[in-house]
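Sequence in, structure out. Go.
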Amino acid sequence: MRQMHSNSTVNEALKCTKCKQYVAKNEQDLARHIAIHDKARNHMCDQCGKTFKHPSKLRLHQRIHTGEKPYQCRECKKRFRLSHILKAHEEIHLSTKAYCCNQCGKAFRVSKNLVQHQMYHCGSSRKGSNKNTEAKTRVKNLEQQWRTSQESAWGNTDSYS
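Output:
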């Protein structure tokens, strides 16, 4: 065995001979990994020619070309190609949106996103412009209002700064 880091060792017998990078935990794990190198990419996309080892991966890829988005958010009805992207998206609906636009009512979890949104109302997307500064000032005021309302609701007088 050879020393890899100060407190770990690598068994050379469990290292992939094909890619020289993968180190398996046991012989069965190594055999499974080596099969990845040996398996042919027999499943080809008829749109772009990209090849895949598994037909399921090809089907997922083909959604790029077809535009199919089978996963829909229950909250906002937005659609997604992959289920894990839907799950990540749904997290936004679970969090409190403390930063609310005073012009249109749209709410955001992160103040930076509200600042960017405010640029839309100001007609500015350039950094450093006066309108950018105005939007940031509005957001700072909204943040302070939100903090004050939270302090009132919870009886908390601690500073959030």
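Check: The CA atoms of residues 69 and 81 lie 4 Å apart. Residues 1-8, 156-161 have pLDDT under 50 and may be disordered.
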